[in-house]
Amino acid sequence: HLLVKVKQNRRLTPQSHWQDVRHLELSHPASIKYNPGDVLTIYPQNSAQDVDQIIQLMEWGQYADQPIQFESTNQMEEADFYPVPPAPSNKLHSEPLTLRGVLVHYLDIRAIPRRSFFSMIAHFTNNDMHRERLLEFTDPQYIDELYDYTTRPRRSILEVLQEFDSVKIPWQWAANALPKLRGRQFSIASGGSCKCIAEGQTNFELLAAIVKYKTVLKRLREGVCTRYITGLQPGTILNVTLQEGGLGVRISEATQPVILVGPGTGVAPMRSLIWERYHWQQDMLAKRQSATDVPSSGSNGIGETILFFGGRNQEADFFYRREWDYLDHQMPLKVFAAFSRDQPAKIYVQDILKQQAKLVYDLLHFKNGIVYVCGSSGKMPRAVRAALVEIFVIFGRIEVSIAEDYLQAMEKEGRYKQETW
């Protein structure tokens, strides 16, 4: 775990736009190495209002602020049926651990409840009608009713406890009954010189789409991490972890051209890689100039970088547009963008890939280029693969099956890399 400080929390999209997308800058006092594609996980906190509500509902008021301690016990028979409670570490918080602290930092009271939750809380009501209804949700034959009650309207644990107000979970059972509050992963958007802010300090930049929507019941829903990020002020200390990503970017690839496909927030790791390649280029130039002691001219040795970006509206969500305009004059960078709502016919990244088919084919077939695809795990990755296969068929004058084999061979060679979420 790392403790980082919020330096900036800036909205990139206009207030009139349907989605709030944030650019976050976080600092850490020590020097930490990371690479394009690496992931930072933010561990959110439940709001004080939500925590107060569940404490009041469960009648935990007299215990909420008393120091508590978790102790390991022998595995109970119930462990086969109920989840083992998370054992919170209080190393990140100087104050004594309390029930309120556990609810704020460790337990997810806004999660959509699972069947096991209803099974457990049925033990903690004296209302026969409530118990009967809760146990119905645990019966496999009522799986559709469970879906309609929980998943479809995105009903939270807190809302279930408000509706079944006869349920009173003993405070000692809170960590068994409530699921662990999980962190949310963000692909790091900073690279190259953007990774450092001062001597020995590390900078992390993130591109975060705020999850807020209305359910079928017309109720506004927002994720726990979303609400947490929205309210972050400069100077706030966050609990995060850093994990290695799956892109496997290496400096040995610097001279190879790259084709980056990153619609929406999928552009975050692409921005990281672009700044990293710019940094590699500057290093190459510096080494060449120091070796010859004269200014360098001609090719700088870095491979071409082609970014295919996609959004809804050019004026609303063309993320980092000014940076691309700047870098376009500093390195061999080309940016092609598709905006699906700016014209009657929707245009996506796979469409502009096909528009630039000859360029794509030449870079991949003749120059040993690498493809990186990042973003939504829905239809986009399949559509991008299909577009590449079509390009190979047309310009390679080969059958579809051979084109598909060619793309699979690229994957095995590490020349087609995909990171989607």
Textual characterization of the structure:
A hairpin with a 5-residue loop joins strand 6 (212-214) and strand 7 (220-222). The two termini are 22 Å apart. Helix 13 crosses helix 14. The protein is built from 15 helices and 13 strands. The protein has helices at residues 48-58, 99-105, 115-121, 128-136, 143-149, 157-163, 174-177, 224-230, 267-292, 314-317, 321-327, 349-355, 357-366, 380-396, 400-412, and strands spanning 2-11, 21-28, 39-42, 184-187, 202-209, 212-214, 220-222, 237-243, 258-261, 305-311, 333-339, 370-375, 416-420. The protein is an alpha/beta fold and 421 residues long. The chain is globular, with a radius of gyration of 26 Å. Helices cover 34% and strands 18% of the residues. The longest helix is centred in the middle third of the chain and has 26 residues, at 267-292. It has a six-stranded antiparallel sheet with strand order 4-3-8-1-2-5.
Brief write-up:
The chain has 421 residues and is of the alpha/beta class. It contains 15 helices and 13 strands.
Secondary-structure map:
Elements: E1 2-11, E2 21-28, E3 39-42, H1 48-58, H2 99-105, H3 115-121, H4 128-136, H5 143-149, H6 157-163, H7 174-177, E4 184-187, E5 202-209, E6 212-214, E7 220-222, H8 224-230, E8 237-243, E9 258-261, H9 267-292, E10 305-311, H10 314-317, H11 321-327, E11 333-339, H12 349-355, H13 357-366, E12 370-375, H14 380-396, H15 400-412, E13 416-420
